[in-house]
Write a structure and sequence with these properties.
49% of the residues lie in helices and 14% in strands. With 469 residues, the chain is α/β, with parallel strands linked by helices.
Length: 469
């Protein structure tokens, strides 16, 4: 870029010199006297020189004009917020250097270590406090809030200017994922990565119990049979069948969906957490601990993923994120299967995208960055084993090549179908998630009455959701 600017400056200097020499100046003292024909000839030559100089001037002006945006872009630095503890910051910054080399736009990254609810609150606080923020990764949990508060900027103009880049993403991602980022006929982001919830199983524990991986459509009775056989005692230490999704809003609702239940209705105006179908699942979870003894009492600082890997628990329900733990611990004795179909096989999903902040001082550059990061090439280099790329072709490529867990294709197999349903994510997600996880703790730790606890949670949630009516 610098070389191009230097060339433009040299050209401009040359033009100035040519213009000074073509203005019909008086001949120097003692110059040659000319005849009429010679004067005509010289006049023609001067005219041609003037025309040539004019053309060179125009070309140089166009070159200078073309160079100006590049120069201005070199002065632009965007701020990008990501959710996480910063372990991927170095790799992200290195990838963004490639973007700087391509465009001249520099990018500074900040990582916020929090769950999605707290992350969204932090972003909202930053924006409200006037901090410069141009782009931010944002999951489904914060989308409706950010759009409703005009924190996010629509990207329809970027899509119109970059139809092929946008179509590359649209053709290779789940339409249901795309819909999450649309409102009032406008598009605010493109799908970047997602997660579902499946049952993870320690295959060594399965072998010890003479069990195969359960069938795709296993039901409640089969699930309880597995739990019974997988609950044993080894060397005086009890080994449990399953670690329950304690404190996990997303994973708990996955269980509810498979029993035709959810935390709230689809337009987020009324809580349904206390429905008969929902209460059945919460009661089952409590019974797994206190009635059957198939699950341990959850503890705040005990990792259920570690319990699965060390064999203390044979099963646990998560998305793909434990895969990063498996790799770090060189743990390969693991397989995945769909959650039990209590009433039906209904998968849950949560999806994220790279958003442009409406308050960005560099909206065009910010949208360009978000579009660049949404492409398959960037996602393939950046996303780790804990994510499922929103690009179905990339998901197949990356997940299959890794090879673990066994049966890992169910992470992406239905990712472009209607098998998935989005997690409940109202504008008041933070408040609602706190209500849910508190109720879950009361039920699983304190043995509170299930129906009474859910009725109380529903009442609290309805107060919060009332503003959506």
């Amino acid at each position: 870029m610098k070389k191009k600017v230097v060339v433009s400056m040299l050209t401009a200097c040359a033009i100035t010199m040519l213009t000074a020499c073509s203005g019909g100046q008086e001949p120097a003292a003692g110059g040659k006297e000319t005849t009429g024909s010679e004067a005509v000839s010289e006049a023609r030559e001067a005219k041609e020189e003037t025309k040539a100089a004019g053309e060179e001037t125009k070309a140089a002006e166009e070159e200078t004009k073309a160079a100006e945006p590049e120069k201005s872009k070199s002065d632009v630095t965007l701020t990008l917020a990501m959710c996480g503890d910063g372990t991927t910051k170095e790799s992200l910054d290195n990838l963004l250097k490639e973007y700087t080399d391509e465009t001249g736009v520099k990018v500074e990254t900040i990582f916020i270590a929090a769950n999605w609810g707290d992350y969204c609150t932090k972003i909202q606080t930053m924006v409200g406090g006037g901090e410069d923020l141009d782009c931010a990764i944002l999951a489904i949990e914060g989308v409706s809030k950010f759009i409703g508060m005009d924190i996010a900027a629509p990207i329809d103009d970027w899509i119109a200017e970059n139809p092929q880049l946008a179509q590359n993403v649209i053709d290779d991602t789940n339409p249901a994922h795309q819909e999450i980022f649309k409102a009032d006929g406008k598009t605010y982001a493109l799908p970047f990565s997602f997660n579902n919830v499946v049952m993870h199983m320690n295959t060594d524990r399965l072998k010890e119990a003479n069990l195969e991986l359960p069938p795709v459509d296993w039901n409640k009775d089969q699930f309880l049979e597995y739990c019974e056989k997988l609950t044993t005692e080894k060397d005086g230490v009890k080994q449990y069948a399953i670690a329950l999704p304690y404190g996990e809003y997303f994973c708990t609702e996955a269980w509810l969906l498979n029993n035709n239940a959810a935390y709230m209705n689809e337009d987020f105006t009324e809580s349904t957490i206390n429905s008969k179908e929902s209460a059945e699942i919460f009661q089952l979870m409590q019974d797994l601990i206190y009635k059957y003894g198939y699950a341990p009492v959850p503890e705040e600082n005990v990792s259920a993923i570690e319990q699965l890997m060390n064999g203390q628990c044979a099963m646990g329900s998560w998305g793909r994120w434990p895969t990063a733990n498996y790799i770090a611990s060189d743990f390969k004795s693991v397989a995945v299967q769909y959650l039990p179909s209590f009433q039906k096989n209904q998968q849950i999903f949560g999806v994220d995208g790279i958003f442009t902040m409406a308050g960005s001082k560099h909206l065009k550059e910010a949208k360009d960055l978000a579009g660049w990061m949404s492409q398959k090439d960037f996602a393939g280099k950046y996303l780790t084993a804990g994510n499922i790329p929103a690009s179905n072709s990339l998901a197949q490529e990356k997940i299959d090549s890794l090879g673990i867990p066994e049966n890992c294709e169910i992470f992406y197999k239905d990712s472009t179908t209607t098998a998935y349903k989005p997690v409940s994510a109202p504008p008041q997600f933070t408040e609602c998630s706190n209500i849910v996880t508190t109720a879950l703790s009361e039920i699983l730790v304190n043995q509170a009455d299930v129906q009474e606890t859910l009725d109380d949670a529903a009442e609290q949630m309805n107060e919060v959701l009332a503003e959506n009516k």
